[in-house]
Hints:
By secondary structure, this protein is an alpha/beta fold. It is about 45% helix and about 15% strand.
Amino acid sequence: MSGEPETTLRRLPSITALLESERVGAWLLRWPRHQVVAALRAACDEVREKILRGAEATAVEPESILDCAQRVLDGQSTPSLRRVINATGIVLHTGLGRAPLAEAAMEAVRRAAGYCNLELDLSSGQRGRRSVHVAALLRELTGAQAATVVNNNAAATLLILNTLCNGREAVVSRGQLVEIGGSYRLPEVMARSGAILREVGTTNRTRLSDYAVAINERTALLVRVHTSNYRQSGFVESVGIAELAALGRERNVLVYDDLGSGALFDLRALGLPPEPTAADSVRAGADVVSFSGDKLLGGPQAGLILGRANVIRRLAANPLMRTYRPDKLTFAALEATLRLHRDPQLAAAELPTMKMLTCSAGELAARAARLAEMLAAVLPGESLEAGQDVSFAGAGSLPTEALPTWVVRWRPIGRSADDLHAQLRGADPPVVARVRDDALILDLRTLSDADCQALVAVAGSLPPPSLPTAR
């Protein structure tokens, strides 16, 4: 080590000396001593590393080290799970938590956060089942004989396969052996469940006769999987759930319909593309149906299971059920969300997911113009333009349907769009958008008026771009 770094290192204050400062004394009233000491050590280590790397003008004064320690402590005090402004236009953004909850659902969560009657029958005083809080609503909304809930639709699929065909065959079309986000592959889930996969048909064409030929003494289940995150077109053929259910009844084999995103009413009533509904599957004769709670339903993460009463009883008796059951907060939010679905128009007005999906182009255009104007007021000289674009539902819902939208295109001056996006993600609250053609795209479909106000405040507080060094 040369003499200069060694001399600089000797100037570093000791932890004991730093602890005696008035500023650290104030920290000790807010944070535990061990946490403060660890932050001071981390700050000293950071400075020491810079000195050893030969970084120019490394500050070793106590205040500089305390500033570094302050950043460490502030970072530790910032919640890991934070509110994010979603400017991507992706309504059901998996990375951002999918469906935002309705006000009624959030209020229900607050009520249930303390003690509640999750598994207590208040009339008898005896222990009850937590699924009763939503089972009646699901029966009412779908016409199913019985219903239960697990913590997501992947768990529902595994539970159904393990209960109904462990060690026996489940017949599935090759065109429906889906893979979805997070490396979820249906064949691998089936293997984990103990079911034996029996593929039928081809990638693009599967006929009812393919299922019929595959049925044998080992067959326990005929499975239809809704291809939520992709569509096939052209020379294709598939079997509807009504035909499959009729074959199941004829051959005494249960039929399972995995709807994926799922819907509780006909989305065409709101001007959206059609998606299969749970009630349609029940009416068609499926013995068991499952779908997600945090996609088109607009509720919390959950796997909703409907079907014949004897099938649901078998699922409830499986020991795996206890490992997949949701907590009280999920049930509270789900019950409130299902109540809104009794009236599709009320659901469209109260569920954020439906409000965003059905927002008109005219309204989006007006909001984009207002946002561009507000941003221009705090960002003089920046290039900001309102224009048309497309957005998507996300999370495998309505996968081929591009939703016309309006956006604000921000072409930053003096920094790249990627650098600007990184700054916005590091702000409070963080802003997540799209970057395309070196422009930041702010999609109004997923931005409420309150979000726009917060976004403008964040944009106005960003540090100015670094100017190029004069040569």
